[in-house]
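Translate sequence into structure tokens.
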Amino acid sequence: MKLQTPISLMIVTLAAGVLGVSACNQRSPSNTASTSTPATTPPATTATTPPAMTTADKASEATNKVAEAVDDAAITTKVKTALLAEPGLKSLEISVDTRDGTVTLTGKVDSPDQRDRAKQVAQTTGGVKGVVDNLAVKSS
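Result follows.
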């Protein structure tokens, strides 16, 4: 099963990213005490510079990206399962890829009816926002 490895890899990557991001903003007390700014130096800020992302914002963004990837993997699994359950459809010859909820079907089917049926099955699967049909009909 190919699905296990990407999900595990995404979870490990997220965990490493969150730990790395949170470690970047930590400072030891000795570093902050030894560096003092003279009172005559004004702070270097500009009104046009956007505020830096906080550690929480970065972690939240990383979490959202992983959640989207996991959602896409779940949608791919649901579509592939639905195609496998469809009688008369050679679903092992159909590849399913999902990105941002849009499913892409590629591969070869025996007839235009099977092509239409595969597309319909994908469209009616929960979580699917759209379907890109790259299926080819085998020539007889």
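Note: The chain has a mean pLDDT of 74.
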